[in-house]
Amino acid sequence: MFDELETQHLPRLFERANNQEARFWVAGCSTGEEAYSLAMLSREVLEQMGKRLEVKIFATDIDRDAILRASSGIYSDGIVADLPPKLMTKYFHYKEDRYQIDRSIREMVVFAQHNLIKDPPFTNIELVSCRNLLIYLQPVLQRKAMEMMNFSLNPQGVLLLGTSETTGEMADLFDSLHQKYKIYASKGKRRPNAEKPNFTLFQEPRFTQDRGQPAAGSGRLSRAQEEERLLSRFLQALVGDYLPLVVIVNEQLEVLHIFGDPEGYLRLPSGKLINDITKIASKDLAIPLATGLQKVFKSGEELKYTSIRTKWRDETKTVQIRIRPLPGKRGQELLAAIFIEDLAARLEDRSSGNEAQVYDLGLEVEQRLHDLEQELQFTRENLQATIEELETANEELQATNEELLASNEELQSTNEELQSVNEELHTVNAEHQSKIIELTELTNDLDNLMASTRIATLFLDENLAIRRFTPAIRRIFKILDGDIGRPINHLLHNLDIDLFGVIKEVAETAVEQEREVRTEDGAWFLMRVLPYYVGVRTIAGVVLAFIDINLLKTTRDALNERETRLSSLYRATPVGIGRVANRIFLELNDQLCQLFGYSRAELVGQSARLMYSSLQEFERVGKDLYEQIRLHGVGTVETCWQRKDGTPLPILLNASALNPDNSEEGAIFTVLDLSTHRKAVARAQASEERFRQLFNTMAEGVVYQNERGEIVSVNPAAERILGLPADRISGWTSADPQWQALREDGTVLPPDQHPSMIALRTGQPVTATVMGVHNAALEHTRWLRVNAIPLFEPGTSKPTQVYATFNDITARLEAKRELKRIQDELRESERFARAALDAVSACVAILDENGTILIVNKAWRDLARASSGPLAGLLEGSNYLQACECPQDAATEKASDFAVGIRAVLAGTRPRFIQHDSSCRAWSEQCTLVRRATGLPGDGPMRVIVIHECTGATATGEQPRQ
Prior knowledge:
Elements: H1 2-16, E1 21-27, H2 33-49, E2 54-61, H3 64-72, E3 74-75, H4 85-91, E4 92-95, E5 98-101, H5 103-106, E6 109-113, E7 125-129, H6 139-152, E8 153-160, E9 174-178, E10 183-186, H7 218-238, E11 245-250, E12 255-259, H8 277-280, H9 283-299, E13 303-312, E14 315-325, E15 335-342, H10 361-452, E16 456-460, E17 466-469, H11 499-509, E18 513-518, E19 524-533, E20 539-548, H12 550-572, E21 576-581, E22 584-588, H13 590-596, H14 600-603, H15 615-632, E23 634-642, E24 648-657, E25 667-673, H16 677-697, E26 701-706, E27 711-714, H17 716-722, H18 726-729, E28 739-742, H19 755-762, E29 766-775, E30 780-791, E31 801-808, H20 810-839, E32 843-847, E33 853-856, H21 858-866, H22 880-885, H23 892-907, E34 912-917, E35 928-935, E36 944-951
Parallel strand pairs: 1-2, 1-7, 2-6, 7-8
Antiparallel strand pairs: 3-5, 4-5, 8-10, 9-10, 11-12, 11-15, 13-14, 14-15, 16-17, 16-20, 18-19, 19-20, 21-22, 21-25, 23-24, 24-25, 26-27, 26-31, 28-29, 29-30, 30-31, 32-33, 32-36, 34-35, 35-36
């Protein structure tokens, strides 16, 4: 049945919907399964159609307990067998061994207590479902229920009755859409007695005891209607051939049915419709009909009048009237049949010998007058008694009317008040609904925000029980969704610290703690344990945040190791190395100082002119060297420097700019002793060997390419970084299809834009270029920082080779992005901590290891600026210990003692120091100054938190002020 609705009827119903809402009604919803099924089915059909339409389903039942259960939308696991797995996964949530309907489906259904017979029906309904309900009602109530549902349905609206019920005698109001499942479409017609249905005068439905049997009488009623229609068709066929004019009347002389042509005998006068046989009959037939019908209804015997003359269109006809009472059952209305025959057409009856009573007009008139006089007398007596009763009743009605008028005024006033209250309730309900939607959206936003930060966060309440957590916390704790509400000490964690002790200490002291922690599997986290504030000073729990710093710590260790390695290489190289900017020595290695007999202090900061014997040589070397650097990025010049003792020393001077785009950053230079050729050759060979070793062992990749861009040599580091052996990539160019170069933004880098090709084409070095190399065979991408240096043959201006050095910065880029994200989070945390510190009412300052004030909160700053007491003028940069030890007043001894306590905390001999100074009256004459000094936990330089609080009680019994 639901498949038939999904494929045939619901799509047509939604296509027909003119507005943006379709309304359904599920009568007798019980526990709500059918209503929710229609909601899910509607959602699926609308998704398939790609149409946006609001579906509102009214689910009603007379049982209040059933409505309450249905509105919760919670069912046992037995529904798994009744629903497809797709709908179960999409629209149900498994919670505590039960299934709960999704909120989006629940909001489509409105549950209400409703009596199908007595309460007003819903309007503008597109689909009514009333399955397995009508079979428990009597036929009268079934008809009433069908009228109600027909009243609710729009034209062409769908009525769903199921396999057990039919429309019965209301079949003419519906078209059948499916015979088996009893699905109908409303024709949009209303019965005369259903135009204004009475919603309050019907009694409660009586339920039969056998739910498995259909209502008694419904079959008999249907058969009786079928027989009545059969007889009507049969009599219509006999009229004209076998029957004369026949008129059926009741005891009130009202015409109920006419068989045959009444022309000439009956007429309809103008004006209000009259149904009395004596008033619509012709003048000559009125008296015989009135007299004869009265006798027949009194005696119950057939009566026949003959030879009655009547005029029709200037002709006189003789007719015969035969009046026969119709048989009936007890309790049914008395009926009589009047047969009017034209005697001229029935001459054969005269020869039949049947004697009929000849109608004597005078005698009948006299008899009729006598009867009318008796009826008139009886009517007068009844009228007199009725008048007396009406007078009495009128007086009572007048009094009742006055009471009703007063009650009506009161009810009108009450109705206006109720209307006003109803409008207010509607407004409040709308506001509440809006707030619920806002709170739902806010909750969803917070959940998504907490999940998207990927920061493991755990919220504990004031009893240190779990309140909420983010999914990432499962890397630290073995926690499940059902653990909410459990104490934190019931959970296991994989950290190498006493975590529960730290949590308890923060909960007791309200002091934030931060430290780097490590898990059992070697992952590093920055742990922050903070008090959970619900007010300025009210703590309602603890918040734990774990920030993954594993990549940051690994990157930091790698950078430190690289820096150490480069420093060692700088110190151990047997060639003089230095850095110069604007020809001023900025940095020199020991080898250079020993070579020329100077100390480092004597050369650093001095001009290179000190090393030349003449100004001309100084300027020549500078001009030649910097010209080469400008053209080629590197420069080589042979010159002669002089030692400290004045002896000359021939040298080979090599220099390279640190940043070709900014000459102000200076250059790196090397000085090679050329005092003897052998020594120079030996050193050259040694240098070449060192270069080869450096080439083969250095961590940076090096690739040499010829003037055509073909690879001629690579070092092992380049093979490792690129993931390709040297014999394989030998002869490759930047345009080789087996690898692909990428820009830093991920787009394809054209082969001619490769740093090596640019250096070959322009003759200029290309440095610090970030690019990616995608290896299609290995399906991975490495990110490199590339420097391409062109090489020239002596006397040539066009490079003959180029060598490119590169570092694998894939991990560094990822670490950089992660570091930026962590720095942003740290800045945000610092802002929150600063705001929290300013919110503290006590005066708080943080001192360094020398006692100098680093940070003060707002309370300290305000008091230092406005007071002349011990805190006057003590702001950032002032030395707090010196201020305490300088003699000022009688409180000097206390302040000095507090300075001693601070020095003990700085020395680590005690964790905190507290001093009560009743002699100090910095704030008020009725308070005592309490000083606290606490060491700041965590790694790094020693810091001390100093807190000044004023506490105490006045003589009048006031509470202590802090």
